[in-house]
Amino acid sequence: MKNNKHTIATLGSHSSLQILKGAKDEGFKTLIITTKEREEFYKSFPFIDEFITLASFSDFPSIEDKLKEKNVIIIPHGSFVAHLGTEKNKNMKLPYYGNKSVLDWEEDRRQQREWLSKAGINVPKQYDFEHEPVTYPIIVKSYGAAGGKGYFYAKNKTDFEKKIIAFGNKKFIIQEYVIGVPLYIHYFYSPLTDKLEIMSMDRRYETNADGIGRIPLLGQEGLDIEPSYVVVGNSDLVLRESMLPEAYDMGRKTIEASRKLIDKKGIFGPFCLETIITPDAKFYVLEISCRIVAGTNIFTNGSPYSWLYYNEPMSTGRRIAREIKIAIEKNKLPLILG
Ligand code: ATP
To answer: At the topology level of CATH, where does 2-96 sit?
Structure first.
C-alpha cells in the first residue's frame, strides 16, 4: 500500500539514508533537507523523492511553512540536536516523530542520571570530588562534550592533578572508570502495541582507547600515550544470549521510569542505552540516547535480532516508518507525534 498522503522527511546527515530507505520500503514519499556540498552525494541514491537545499542546517526554521504544505512527518536523529539545539527542536511546529518532553531530560546529565537511577539501572559511581574521597581510576568528562571529546583518564591523584591543569576551568564531572566492553543497545518501543524490541547492538571503535591494546605494554613504556575516546566508527556485536533478558529488562525499566518522571507518554520509538559490561557480566549504563543512533547504520538490511522478530529486512529506520504506517491505518498518529 502506498502512503501517499504523508512524506517522511529528515536532515541529510547521521542516519538519514537508513531512515529514508526504510520510509520508501514502507510506501512513503521521501524528502531530504540537505546542504549544497552534500546534494550530489544524496542524489546518487534512488529512494529520495524530493530535495530541499539549505545554505546551512541551522536555517531549517525558514522552510517550516513550505514543509507543512507538503504534509511531512519529521524524523529526528543525532544531527537535529547537534545543528538546531534543543530549543529549536522543541519549537518546531511540524509533526515530529517522538516525545519532545524527553529532550530536556536527555540534555541535562544530572536529570539523565536521575532517570536511569529511578529506573533501577546500574550507573557508574559519580564523585562529588570536593567532598568525598575518590577511588581511582577515574574518567573526567567536560560538560556538553560530544562523541567522547574532551575526556581524560586518571589512574591516581597525582595523575589527575597533573592533567586537570591542562584541562583549564571547564565544568566537569568525575566518574569511576569502568573497565569492560562498551556495548550500545538499540531498542524500539511501540506505544501502539506496548511491545519492546531489541533491534540491534553495536560497539564503538574509539581512537586511541581501542588501539592501545595493539601495542604490548613493553612497547608502550615511555611513550606517554593518553587514551582518547573519540568515536571513529561502529562495529557489530551480538550479546551472550544469557545476558539478553537483562538487557531487555533495562529497556523496559527505562520506559516505565520515563512515564513516571517525564510525562504519561514517556519515551517511545527508538532509543539506545550506552553500556559497559564488566568481567562479572554487570551492565553499567553511561548514557541514554532518546532517538535513532548512528550505530544502527550497520543494520540497514536488518540485524540478527530484527530478523528474528520480522523475518524480513528491518532496519530501525524502516521500523519507524512501519510504526507511522500502522498509526495512520489505526487513526492513532497523534499518539506517536510530538
Ligand atoms: P555521545 O554523546 O556521542 O554518546 P559522549 O561525549 O556523551 O558521547 P559518553 O558516551 O559519555 O560520551 O562516553 C564516550 C566514551 O568514553 C564511551 O564510549 C566510553 O568508551 C568512555 N567512557 C565514558 N564513561 C566511562 C566510564 N565511566 N568508564 C569507562 N569509560 C567511559
So the answer is: Rossmann fold (3.40.50)
**What would the pLDDT profile of 6-59 be if each residue is shown by its tens digit?**
999 999 999 999 999 999 999 999 999 999 999 999 999 999 999 999 999 999
| Domain locations along the chain | 2-96, 106-122+180-204+234-327, 126-176
Give the number of the atom of ligand 1 that is nearest the alpha carbon of residue 146.
6
Torsion of CA 159, 161, 166, 170, to 10 degrees: 120
Residue having the nearest C-alpha atom to atom 14 of ligand 1: 148
What does the alpha-carbon distance between residue 102 and residue 263 come to, in Å, rounded to a whole number? 9
Q: With beta carbons less than 8 A apart as the criterion, state whether 272 and 289 touch.
A: yes
**233: which strand partners?**
205
CATH class of the domain defined by 106-122+180-204+234-327: alpha beta
Task: Summarize pLDDT for 87-107 with one digit per residue, the tens.
Answer: 999 999 999 999 999 999 998
Which bin fits 266, alpha (ψ -120 to 50), beta or left (φ > 0)?
left
Whose alpha carbon is nearest atom 23 of ligand 1?
Answer: 286
Query: Which position has the higher pLDDT, 218 or 19?
Result: 19
- pLDDT band, very low/low/confident/very high, at 139 (cuts 50, 70, 90): very high
274 Cα nearest atom in ligand 1: 10
Q: Is the pTM of this model over 0.85?
A: yes
Q: Which atom of ligand 1 is nearest to the CA of 209?
A: 20
Amino acid at 9: A
In eight-state DSSP terms, residue 133 is -
Whether the CB-CB separation of 316 and 18 falls below 8 Å is answered with yes
Testing ligand 1's pocket by substitution, the residue of 126, 149, 229 carrying the most ligand atoms inside 8 A of its CB is 229
